[in-house]
Amino acid sequence: MTDTPSNTPDNDAIPKRSIRSFVLRQSHMTPAQQKAIDTLWPQFGLDFQAATVDLNTLFGRTAPKILEIGFGMGTATAEIAQRLPESDFLAIDVHGPGVGNLLKLIDEQSIGNIRVMRHDAVAVVETMLADASLDGIHIFFPDPWHKKRHHKRRLIQAAFVAMLLPKLKPGGYIHLATDWEEYAVQMLDVLSGFAELRNSAADYAPTPAYRPETKFEARGKRLGHGVWDLVFERIQYEPIKFSNF
Ligand SMILES: C[S@@+](CC[C@H](N)C(=O)[O-])C[C@H]1O[C@@H](n2cnc3c(N)ncnc32)[C@H](O)[C@@H]1O
Fold first, then answer.
1. N or C end: fewer C-beta atoms under 10 angstroms in the chain?
2. Among 25, 95, 126, 211, which is best to mutate for testing ligand 1, by the most ligand atoms less than 8 A from CB?
3. Cα 238 to ligand 1 centroid, rounded to whole Å
4. Residues 36-77 pLDDT 10s
5. Residue 63: helix, strand or coil by DSSP?
6. Closest atom of ligand 1 to CA, residue 217
7. Which residues lie across from 230 on neighbouring strands?
8. Domain that holds residue 106
9. Ligand 1 within 6 A of 98 CB?
10. Residue 49 lies inside a defined structural domain of this protein
11. What is the tens place of the pLDDT at every residue in 167-198?
């Protein structure tokens, strides 16, 4: 959610879109987080580029690829990557201290299947990801933007989901979670509007076993919030074509 715009890679490239799902604020980078960035970025960091990236080349193997948008401090990301060692995780956030923290966790826990980007994920999806390159998408507790006048900043809107879906392989999934009931309703409504998506549950899904409690989720629970997970699968879908006789 926040960062100092001078001490992590890729700052300059964060685009200045008019409506963004995040706010760049000053926040404190610990010396350990900064050190992790200085030493580990070349191995585990990926800079924004205006061209598609070959994810198998990036990770050095052919394996399922999961995109995570908005990993925060990265604790859940690191845990999931260890629980699912056969998958590779491209983890994106704009928050500098979180980027440093996730790199630190990667190092401390010798995790090989995460690559980190510090950039606006909307631009990354739009520019760097090839169609049908992902097996899964995780977006856990995206900023709820509670006030009505800020709802336009919410990440989960039809326009962004329409941009995301072609990146998923048929059979791939999108997993969202939120602690804000009214945003959960919006998420269900948006995902249900896509004919190429099938809900894995009647409405909200049980939390899949691979997802641990995230930092933001724990905070929400302390405030008495509920938790809603949504898991939808991309199905083979051919729009009906009308031929001209
Ligand atoms: C509310 S926090 C949740 C963090 C984490 N998933 C958790 O549950 O603890 C949302 C995160 O999304 C990030 N974020 C919001 N919009 C983003 C975007 N367009 N691209 C990348 N990260 C974004 C914010 O920086 C923040 O770290």
1. C
2. 95
3. 33
4. 999 999 999 999 999 999 999 999 999 999 999 999 999 999
5. coil
6. 8
7. 176
8. 27-234
9. yes
10. yes
11. 999 999 999 999 999 999 999 999 999 999 99
